[in-house]
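Feature request, filed as a ticket because there's no other form

It would be nice if the structure record came with a short human-readable summary line next to the tokens. Right now we just get the raw output. Example of a typical job, pasted below so the devs can see what we mean:
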Amino acid sequence: SALCGLAPDAGSLIAARVLQGLAAALLFPQVYASIRVHFEGDAARRAFGLLGMTLGLAAIAGQVLGGWLVHADIGRLGWRTIFLINVPIGLLAIGMARFVPESHAPQRPALDWGGVALASAGLGLLLVPLLEGPGRGWPAWALAALAAGVALLAVFAVHQERRRRGGRAPLVDMRLLRERRFATGGALVLLVYSTSSSFFLCFALLVQSGFGLDPLAAGLLFAPCSVGFVVASLSAPRLVARFGPAAIAAGALVYAASLAWLVAQVALAGGALQPPALVPALVVVGAAQGLIMTPLLNLVLGTVEPAHAGMASGVISTLQQVGAAFGVAVVGMLFGATLSDAATGETRDLYAEAFVSGMACNLVAALLAALLLRRLARAS
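Raw output as currently delivered:
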């Protein structure tokens, strides 16, 4: 974060963001695995509930805080403050980490560097074309990279299975992905996090680029969303304890309905829309996200044995990041395509139309998540 805030140019910023992502990839699976190992039953449900609430609230509140920091322009640092604020937070986290109970496997397995290379290259070749291809007219290199990414991930799966059968520790035990409940849960994580990341992006583009709000005003529109998220997050563990996974499935249906409400408002009003009119729908969107995201981690990781907690946590953490990137890529592609296809028109109308186009994809993803959750509830 310090390197991001001090970056002298765009290239340096991108490189620092890569390092930031690598650090996060090392951190998050350990957090998930530690909770899975140290807590059971209701205690695990509450712990994962608090974790889910923290992650979701941070994502929403970050929009508000980020907008305020840019608007305040503290020390004339502008956008750099949104990265530099992480430095004292990171130092505090390092100090608090001393109080986390130790948990590790009886033996330290050898790291599969070949698997790391295959998975990293495969995901990179898959995501970069999705992000860059639409804006460049889908050149041949983008299509070739997509094909290569799929091929490398297939090779990765074969490589992991060979390591397991040869008695060597794989990065991912493919039997884990063949377990129906865990595989369904992984698909849920992918869908839910794809909608969350793309929603924030498209809404920010709508109200800032389309309707001319400054970063602070745009960020404040997310405040009601965070209120709904917190209230629902506090209720989610009790609802799941009483009704089981069916409560999360109901949350997914509410999520789909709230997105449909939001899309309908923007579609009907078009360029005449007044952004504050979206606040009631945003509250429900936040509440629905709280009902899903808060208990979801416990639901998914609770299906695996504690001995596989680290591996499963790594898979789920990867799916969260891949889902977020995939959502931004696909929904951003629809958003951008709508803008580029419109030859003329008022800016507000064009961005409203683009928002509706992008969020239609999220609506489908939310409905799929509700369907998968219903299936998971029956299996449970």
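Something like this underneath would help us a lot:
The radius of gyration is 21 Å.
The chain has a mean pLDDT of 83.
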